[in-house]
Design goal:
271 residues; alpha+beta; two-stranded parallel sheet; 26% strand; globular
């Protein structure tokens, strides 16, 4: 992901991690990547997601053991990110084209359009696992290529004819979100307001498990007509390790990409 982002034009990487794993993370990944990026003029920064980093006046419920989801994770970057930015899941492979499309969109940012966002729109059938159900944001897109609705949908299973949830079939050609969005710096202010609202409502409904999730919050803003999200068509095949049984497929997929010349065995050697 870092390789593909840099090649597309991105020049700053923010790792969002827990503070307690920082030493191990830097030893295994961060220091090596920082050295590579320094030679290319790419900045590395760290943001820390913590369970007790919550709105003023709120308290962590007794028994809560995990942080508050992807919305809180991105919010932890406030103060570090002051430019248009993309977010990704660090354990997903999105394909080179998604980064190029997103970079080109974000380059058009102006402060006069603080609520113009984008999303990599994957084709559902390209994101399913052979090993079991997955969660995806199922999207509706209008004729102009803008997102009109996103519904976080759990337990989507691959079938011989497409996809299903339970006994209900889903169009395998549907667009879906894989948590790859492009936002303006002003979005972090919105995210902070939304986090406070989340604590007053959903967090209290299920205090031990509720999560502040980017696709859900974005969907709420869309329904209010407060933002626009351009869907950037992405036909690359996604892959990731949703289940441990997915690992051999992912290993083989990367080997195939190297054989085809998409990547060098010395990953950063072509930058």
């Amino acid at each position: 992901s870092i390789h593909d982002a840099i090649k597309a034009g991105f020049d700053k990487i923010v790792f969002i991690i827990r503070k307690d794993i920082e030493d191990d993370f830097r030893y295994i990944i961060g220091d090596r990547i920082e050295k590579i990026c320094k030679n290319m003029g790419v900045e590395i920064a760290y943001a820390y997601q913590a369970i007790d980093d919550i709105p003023d006046g709120e308290i962590v419920p007794d028994g809560r053991t995990k942080p508050w989801g992807t919305g809180q994770a991105v919010l932890s970057c406030k103060g570090l990110v002051n430019e248009p930015f993309a977010i990704i899941n660090a354990d997903d492979y999105y394909g080179k084209g998604a980064y190029v499309n997103m970079y080109n969109f974000l380059r058009q940012y102006t402060p006069e359009k603080p609520d113009d966002f984008c999303m990599a729109g994957f084709i559902l059938e390209n994101t399913l696992s052979d090993q079991g159900g997955v969660t995806r944001g199922i999207c509706k897109v209008n004729g102009d290529g803008y997102l009109t609705e996103i519904v976080e949908t759990s337990n989507i299973e691959k079938t011989p004819t497409g996809a299903k949830v339970g006994d209900m079939p889903i169009d395998p050609k549907s667009h879906c979100s894989m948590n790859m969005f492009g936002f303006t710096p002003e979005f972090l202010d919105r995210l902070e307001v939304g986090f406070a609202e989340f604590f007053k409502t959903k967090a209290k409904e299920n205090p031990l498990k509720s999560e502040y999730l980017i696709p859900i919050y974005v969907g709420e803003l869309l329904q209010k007509g407060e933002i626009s999200i351009k869907v950037l068509e992405t036909t690359d095949k996604w892959f990731g390790v949703t289940y441990k049984e997915d690992k051999p497929m992912v290993v083989n997929a990367f080997a195939d990409l190297i054989d085809k010349g998409e990547y060098s065995k010395d990953l950063f050697g072509d930058l």
